[in-house]
């Protein structure tokens, strides 16, 4: 029975897309357009230069395209299923998360795992196509591929907790749509989704080093393209693991405090 509950929770959001073929077509088209535009942009930027901020043209293009593909890991449309924390708080239905057989924190984790596995299928498909087309470079060695895989796993784990913290803020705010958008923009900017952090000023890079955002994406992709050498991989992986532990403890505390704010009438 527990396995059945876990399976049903994990497939909530992916089913919303699998049962809507037009939405899947739109996702494929959007991802293809993003890859083409990013590939064209970075090749154009490097047309008159060799190496900038420690990145060659091929490294920069590979980083940017992989960032687009990695963004598919957590870009599913949760609003279509009306199962976001923000929506539940708005409609006063968050109480049902506490009446289900699964605890809310476990339900949230299982649903996020299902979303990331579904998104992983999209990202891997896009990666194979881009690799075959020569859009991205392969990893420099098997060791680099292994370290990148481990770092990417830790990065997605950190990202899960970062997104969880953003959702948990809904328990303490009445209208936080604008705040959520600002925080999501900050997360994408500081994690290197829009551009590699190496292009930003030194003070910006130093500041971001004290935040968990760059551990989600910038570190794995920098390891992949060789901007971070293998000799520094152990330190970077340990930092990512430390963020996972710290955020896990923090979100566990927030779950406990959030439960005290839920009443029988809803949010």
TrEMBL record:
Q: Which UniProt keywords apply?
A: Membrane, Transmembrane, Transmembrane helix
Alphabetical list of InterPro entries matching this protein: ABC-2_transporter-like
Q: Show the Pfam families listed in the entry.
A: ABC2_membrane_6
From the record, give the transmembrane residue ranges.
117-136, 142-166, 178-200, 233-255
- Which domain of life does this protein belong to? Bacteria
Return the protein name: ABC transporter permease
Q: Where does this protein come from, organism-wise?
A: Streptomyces variegatus
Q: What is the lineage of its organism?
A: Bacteria, Bacillati, Actinomycetota, Actinomycetes, Kitasatosporales
């Amino acid at each position: 029975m527990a396995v059945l509950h876990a399976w049903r929770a994990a497939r909530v959001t992916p089913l919303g897309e699998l049962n809507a073929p037009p939405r899947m077509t739109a996702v494929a088209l959007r991802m293809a357009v993003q890859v083409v535009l990013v590939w064209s942009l970075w090749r154009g930027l490097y047309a008159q230069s060799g190496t900038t901020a420690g990145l060659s043209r091929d490294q920069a293009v590979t980083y940017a395209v992989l960032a687009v593909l990695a963004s598919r890991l957590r870009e599913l449309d949760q609003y279509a299923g009306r199962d976001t924390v923000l929506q539940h708080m708005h409609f006063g239905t968050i109480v049902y998360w506490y009446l289900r057989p699964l605890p809310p924190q476990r339900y949230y984790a299982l649903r996020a795992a299902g979303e990331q596995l579904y998104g992983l299928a999209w990202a891997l498909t896009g990666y194979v196509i881009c690799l075959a087309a020569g859009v991205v470079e392969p990893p420099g060695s098997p060791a680099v591929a292994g370290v990148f895989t481990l770092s990417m796993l830790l990065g997605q784990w950190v990202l899960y907790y970062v997104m969880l913290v953003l959702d948990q803020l809904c328990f303490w705010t009445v209208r936080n749509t604008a705040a959520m958008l600002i925080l999501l923009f900050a997360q994408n900017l500081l994690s290197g989704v829009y551009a590699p952090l190496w292009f930003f000023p030194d003070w910006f890079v130093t500041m971001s080093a004290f935040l968990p955002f760059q551990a989600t994406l910038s570190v794995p992709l920098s390891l992949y393209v060789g901007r971070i050498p293998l000799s520094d991989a152990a330190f970077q992986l340990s930092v990512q693991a430390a963020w996972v532990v710290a955020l896990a403890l923090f979100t566990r505390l927030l779950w406990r405090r959030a439960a005290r704010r839920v009443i029988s009438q809803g949010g």
